Amino acid sequence: MIVFKRMSALLLAGVTIMAAAGCGSGGDTTASAGGADDGKITMGFAQVGAESGWRTANTKSIQESAKAAGIELKFSDAQQKQENQIKAIRSYIQQKVDVIAFSPVVESGWDNVLKEAQTAKIPVILTDRAVDSADTSLYKTFLGSDFVEEGRKAGKWLVEEYKDSTDTVNIVELQGTTGSAPANDRKAGFAEVIGAESKFKVIASQTGDFTRAKGKEVMEAFLKSNPDIDVLYAHNDDMGLGAIEAIEGAGKVPGKDIKIITVDAVKDGMQALADGKINFIVECSPILGPQLMDLAKKVVAGEQVPARVLTEETTFTPEQAKAALPTRPY
Ligand code: AHR
């Protein structure tokens, strides 16, 4: 499956270059079969759920941007279940929307429904998360973060933090939803960087499903079976925040007894970072709405779009979090 994904990535990279050269797959003039012919674009959006602060901010961004762009939005919340997302996409196809956008809960298993959309000539835009389909013509573009790079940034901070130590560093990892792109890629990017030094040992790694409640529950189990945890790497802020409750419940000091790295940089995470309970956050931007609406207008008009649109992101130390918090929008 990893080989398959790498091939997909290579194909995608190829398509990006082709698109930049003006011969990409986005210039399909039969771009849309959907909707009433009133000039107004209707978008069907199949959201993952409401599992985290990041997701809430992402939903808000999509809803507000659709309104601002004059796009009629049909929105569904899949409650983290792939079958619900597939049902929602099929319903959008039946309703003949002009464009479908979705954030796939997991990477695999989308080919059939994407082929149905293609047969109905409804363009599809992936937002936030990728699919592992080998046929990249099944969607027009993929807008979102580079999750592998996010994992690498987390790993690089850790390597720097322990550069003067030769002792073993015991790490526990709270993974995102099993099979999801951010869980797979954040794990891979982190492992790639820390794997270069044998002192770093991931002694436990389990899913916390990107939720605060599960993050707490799994961290409690980690603490019971591993007395010597030095570092927690959580694939999102919410799981990290749940884990902080577990660490405090076990009589330890988060950020000191156990160093914590998370991903997202939502307000609650940034507050914990400013308070010294988290040590480092890798940003993942949920504000995808404005770019999504621009891309939607272009694909519906049959214009070319790049095969991959990356979001710009940074990282935060406690000092940087203190400076950013007063104006942090989410
Ligand atoms: O796909 C993005 C991830 O999904 C965010 O990092 C996480 O918080 C969310 O649930």
From TrEMBL:
Compartments annotated for it: namely: Cell envelope
List the keywords (alphabetical). Signal
Signal peptide range in chain numbering: 1-21
- List residues of the Periplasmic binding protein domain: 49-303
- Keyword Signal listed? The answer is yes
Q: Which Gene3D superfamilies match?
A: 3.40.50.2300
Q: Which GO terms describe its cellular component?
A: cell envelope
Q: Which terms in the Gene Ontology molecular function aspect does this entry carry?
A: carbohydrate binding
**What's a Pfam family in this record?**
Peripla_BP_4
Query: What family classification does the UniProt entry report for this protein?
Result: Belongs to the bacterial solute-binding protein 2 family.
Q: Which PANTHER family match?
A: D-ALLOSE-BINDING PERIPLASMIC PROTEIN-RELATED, GALACTOFURANOSE-BINDING PROTEIN YTFQ
Protein name stated in the entry: LacI family transcriptional regulator
